[in-house]
Amino acid sequence: MNIDGAGSGTGVLRLYKDGDATANPDDYIDINLAAANLSGIDVSTAENTSVLEGALNSLFGIGNNGALSFQVGSSLSDKIEVSISSVKTSDVYLDNDGVVQSLDIGTQSGAQNAIEVLNNAINTVISRRADVGAATSRFDFASQAIEVSITNQSAAAAVFLDADIASESTNFATAQVKFQASVSVLAQANQIPQALLSLLQ
User: What does pTM read for this prediction?
Assistant: First the structure.
């Protein structure tokens, strides 16, 4: 992982695939830390680490504020934005009021509260999975639309680039018939003066 001067300028975080810049020198993603209101990386304190985590979550579309935008068509509006909320324990173990709860089944009231928290957690996870499924479905549909578009473009290009042998053969035969008919009519026209002269004799 290289930070300063890695991309187009200072404050760019470059992440290589599998963390190996030697094996995959061209397979990376650049993250502009300035765009995330970060002038650098400092994880010396828990607070700084939390700020960095929030910035990366936002950049990668994780959480309620961030969203990754994918271009899936030729039009500027052909985009799919994906934002998946967190499913960390602290974000799913909530009571009906949205307050984080720890599970304690040592008492009857604690067990009843745990059931409520677990139900909320299960519903939250199901909702996140539905979000992932919906995003996957949208990508599948966009992929199929792009495949159809590519097929149509290839067919259109073939019409312009490839000769239609059957059509051209028909046109050639038609032209030949017209030429032979023209020659026959011209020959008959040339015989008319001679026929008139023979009548005068």
Answer: 0.47
